[in-house]
Design brief:
About 45% of the residues lie in helices and about 15% in strands. It contains 35 helices and 31 strands. An eight-stranded mixed sheet has the order 12-22-21-14-15-16-17-13. Helix 16 links the parallel strand 14 and strand 15. Helix 19 crosses helix 35 and helix 26 crosses helix 27. It is elongated, with a radius of gyration of 32 Å. The C terminus is likely disordered. InterPro entries: ATP_grasp_subdomain_1, PEP-util_enz_mobile_dom, PEP_util_AS, PEP_util_C, PEP_util_CS, Phosphohistidine_dom_sf, PPDK_AMP/ATP-bd, Pyruvate_phosphate_dikinase. This is Pyruvate, phosphate dikinase. Its cofactor is Mg(2+).
Length: about 900
């Protein structure tokens, strides 16, 4: 196990060992950039710490003390030396960037003696005691788990007594008074004194940073961003430089490009006479970075050159933390900058145009969830808005919800189904669960690089920061609008935010749908050149089909015909069909549904002219179209209690109740549904098939290129598909007449029953395609009812790592995936041209798409708004895995499906 690496001995290639921060500090050091010296304790040590039951490994501190001696020599200072004290920061540094999720301690090495030495050395007692009070507060919070408010309350009272508003206005005597109060807090809450031995401070700080790897907010962040728990964090120990030493000092964060828009301009903020935590924590509202060019032109020019150099070196937009100490620039960190989806796309495309990266690298740089974010809704500007105030547009997108003022309430209300906007003075890492639950975030303090902004951008949440017009109280905020009106918004009242403009709006707003940008279209075109997996959509209406086609869908992989029955004017006809006592009555109802279905299919065929349309015949059990039995019983009791109730109404109700009871099944999802319904009541499927081919004829007359694929659901035995295929062929012959033997269409099945996957060779004899319905296939393979599992035990399973992922979100490769592989292999062994794809929700999930590519499926099908995501993920799968190894690829042209092949 390697314990530590000095900055000058590391490099970027050691990221897994040194963490992202340590690797980049080493890389910058060796590039000759102004990095304060230091060393990194490796991720190996973190893993060893947890394997040993949270015990630091033997020999660690001996090596740390040796490394500290080397820093003392480099700085000509002594750790704990009262005359020339060496101070260090102790900071986390995970392999995958987790901004604000773990802990940091600054100014370590100060005690009652060294603070006097620092004051004498700098001639600035106010600065020295400011550093000391910061250390005690950070140490108390990080090492002793004392709530920050215990310290902030005392600081607030001190400023009130001194009649000042800014930290920089507090005198040395004021800080000395506060330090005494802070020590009392530690003595009371931790049951011990603040440690005066600097070596003890260092050991406790290292252990605390390792411990923070498993704090609640870090665990939530890792879960959201799928970061492995076993990665661990490194610890970076670096000599301090001070941005709070006076008027020629400052600290800031700068991005080499705008992280919200991607524009190639330096973007960031800074504070004079402050330490770095003041900027990212949102304690003070910082100044735009361009102003630094006026205050410190030489430093600003050096920062611009450094930013350009780092971006060229890392070939990506960088997020740089810097400190200016007495007019000299120091770099404390660089990392690939968190960015919005819009910025991610623009930056990737611009870097290709600038010749920095190629198109494959640009595609690889886009996280599929970026595209979910990019397709954010925006506020409909055609309607009047009651704008209360404006803050900083920290993360784009618009959202409406009810105001909540703490993270716990946000989480609880969101779980109850309410949309919420989290309103805070500023967010802290402890608020991450509330940010995750909220539709958007609004803060009254903090800047574009504050915790709220960074985390919201990473999650794709709209965010407005630094809205200083808000006056927050316990469960409300007041604001005076531009026209002098004072408005109070209380918890539970409707509120909207616009993360693109920074506007805060009273009430709910109308939102409009997003559009694809030119850069995204170019990026998607590059992805299309790379990928081999086709991307279809799940669409049940012409509108959905047209939207999906505009997003690049190459066909419809699932058209659920039952959704066409759900409109208000159709439900009574469907119910009449179900309640029919005779074949004649049912035929009459079906005759009314036939032209409705035909019209539906014509609209979809027109929208998808030239592309395949996979139409799934009726899948759910019939009881889903009828009223709930319990509601009917309650209604009957109510009518029975009314002597003057209409007898005809009571008779109709009794008839309906008898039918509902007759259709009742103990487990309807495993009962009479799908092809089973088509076999028992074939006239329903006959109507749907007739509607399909009537629509075909109508569209052919319009000179449209119609490519229908008819999918039989819930097949578990080859005989079921054989019989259903015969039905399709017969109706096609009847409707199409003389062109029946020349018009090309497919008949296939949805593989959603495990037996169908196991016996795929038999079923393939009667199929032109397999579409894997992974929602039901997952339910039946695991034996989980999705509706029950996801709201109950499944969450526990994922949180406790019994399962790596929710199998309804990420395809279960070992179980469900094995069934898919079997079915593809056995089906294509019988019919090499068999077309295969998936149409469950996994069709829009990156990991699942990688699996589909790897096993040689021909397509994935997903909801319209996930089509761009699937196009990118399919290209990334090709780049990562190469061409899939499948026996054959399916024919691009439909086969004649009038006869079994």
């Amino acid at each position: 196990m390697q314990i530590l690496v000095p900055f000058h001995s590391g490099h970027a290639g050691l990221k897994q060992l040194l963490g992202g921060k340590g690797a980049n500090l080493a890389e910058m050091t060796n590039a000759g950039l102004p990095v304060p010296p230091g060393f990194t304790i490796t991720t190996d040590v973190c893993r060893s710490y947890y394997e040993a039951g949270k015990q630091l490994p033997a020999g660690l501190m001996e090596q740390v003390h040796q490394a500290m001696r080397e820093l003392e020599q480099a700085k000509d200072q002594g750790f704990g030396d009262p005359a020339k004290p060496l101070l260090v920061s102790v900071r986390s540094g995970s392999v995958t960037s987790m901004p604000g999720m773990m802990d940091t301690i600054l100014n370590l090495g100060l005690n009652d003696e060294t603070v006097q030495g620092l004051a004498a050395l700098t001639g600035n007692p106010r600065f020295a005691f400011d550093c000391y009070r910061r250390l005690i507060q950070m140490f108390g919070n990080v090492v002793f788990d004392i709530e920050t408010y215990q310290f902030e309350r005392l600081l607030h009272h001190l400023k009130q007594r001194l009649a000042v508003s800014q930290d920089s206005e507090v005198s040395a005597e004021g800080w000395t008074e506060l330090i005494g109060e802070y020590k009392t807090v530690i003595r009371k809450e931790a049951g011990r004194e603040f440690p005066q031995q600097v070596e003890e401070q260092l050991e406790l700080a290292i252990e605390a940073v390792f411990r923070s790897w498993n704090n609640a907010r870090a665990q939530v962040y890792r879960k959201v961003h799928q970061i492995p728990d076993e990665q661990g964090t490194a610890v970076n120990i670096q000599t301090m430089v001070f941005g709070n030493m006076g008027g020629d000092c400052g600290t800031g964060v700068v991005f080499t490009r705008n992280p919200s828009t991607g524009e190639p301009v330096l973007y960031g903020e800074y504070l004079m006479n402050a330490q770095g935590e003041d900027v990212v924590a949102g304690v003070r509202t910082p100044v735009p970075i361009a102003k630094l060019g006026e205050e410190m032109p030489l430093v600003f020019e050096q920062l611009v050159r450094t930013a350009e150099k780092l971006e060229r070196h890392y070939t990506d937009m960088q997020d740089i933390e810097f400190t200016v100490e007495q007019g000299k620039l120091y770099l404390l960190q660089t990392r690939d900058g968190k960015r919005t989806a819009q910025a991610a796309v623009k930056i990737a495309v611009d870097l290709v145009r600038e010749g920095v990266i190629d198109t494959g690298e640009a595609v690889n740089r886009i996280e599929p969830f970026h595209l979910d974010q990019l397709l954010h809704r925006a506020i409909d500007t055609d309607k009047p808005l009651h704008v209360l105030a404006a803050g900083l547009p920290a993360s784009p997108g618009a959202a409406s919800g009810v105001a909540v003022f703490d993270a716990d309430t946000a989480e609880a209300w969101a779980r109850a189904g309410r949309k919420v906007i989290l309103v805070r003075s500023e967010t802290t890492p402890e608020d991450i669960h509330g940010v995750l639950a909220a539709e958007g975030v609004l803060t009254s303090r903090g800047g574009m690089t504050s915790h709220a902004a960074v985390v919201a951008r990473g999650m794709g949440k709209p965010c407005v920061c630094g809205c200083e017009a808000l006056r927050l109280t316990d469960r409300a905020f007041a604001v005076t609008t531009a026209d002098g009106e004072t408005v109070t918004v209380r918890e539970g009242e409707a509120l909207s935010i616009d993360g693109a403009t920074g506007r805060v709006i009273l009430g709910e707003v109308s939102l409009r749908e997003p559009e694809l940008t030119g850069e995204l279209q170019e990026l998607l075109a590059w992805a299309d050149e790379i990928r081999t997996l086709e991307v279809y959509t799940n669409a049940d209406t012409p509108e959905d089909a047209a939207k999906a086609r505009s997003f690049g869908a190459e066909g419809i992989g699932l058209c659920r015909t039952e959704h066409m029955f759900m409109s208000a004017e159709r439900v009574p006809v469907v119910q009449a069909m179900i309640l029919a006592e005779t074949e004649e009555e049912r035929a009459e109802a079906l005759a009314k549904l036939l032209p409705m279905q035909q019209e539906d299919f014509e609209g979809i065929f027109r929208a998808m002219d030239g592309l395949p349309v996979t139409i799934r015949l009726l899948d759910p059990p019939l009881h889903e179209f009828l009223p709930n039995m319990e509601q009917l019983v309650v209604e009957r009791e109510r009518l029975n209690g009314q002597p003057d109730a209409d007898p005809d109404r009571k008779e109709r109700l009794e008839k309906l109740l008898r039918k509902v009871r007759g259709l009742h099944e103990m487990n309807p999802m495993l009962g009479t549904r799908g092809c089973r319904l088509g076999l028992v009541l074939p006239d329903i499927y006959e109507m749907q098939i007739e509607a399909v081919f009537r629509a075909v004829l109508s569209c052919l007359r319009e000179q449209l290129d119609v490519r229908p694929d008819i999918m039989i659901p819930l097949v578990g035995h080859a005989n079921e598909l054989k019989r259903m295929r015969e039905l399709v062929t017969r109706k096609a012959d009847e409707v199409l007449g003389e062109i029946a033997h020349t018009f090309r269409y497919r008949v296939g099945t949805m593989i959603e029953v495990p037996r169908a996957a196991v016996t795929a060779g038999d079923i393939a004899q009667h199929a032109d395609f397999f579409s894997f319905g992974t929602n039901d296939l997952t339910q039946m393979t695991f034996g989980y009812s999705r509706d029950d599992a996801e709201g109950k035990f499944l969450t526990h399973y994922v949180e406790t790592k019994l399962l790596p992922d929710n199998p309804f979100q990420v395809l279960d490769r070992d179980g469900v995936g094995t069934l898919i592989e079997w079915a593809v292999e056995r089906g294509r062994a019988v019919k090499p041209q068999l077309k295969t794809g998936i149409c469950g929700e996994h069709g829009g999930d990156k990991q699942s798409i990688f699996f589909c590519h790897g096993v040689g499926l021909d397509y994935v099908s997903c909801s319209p708004y996930r089509v761009p995501l699937a196009r990118i993920a399919a290209a990334q799968a090709q780049l990562a895995l190469g061409s899939a190894t499948s026996p054959e690829t399916a024919s691009e042209e439909p086969v004649t499906s009038g006869r079994s092949t």
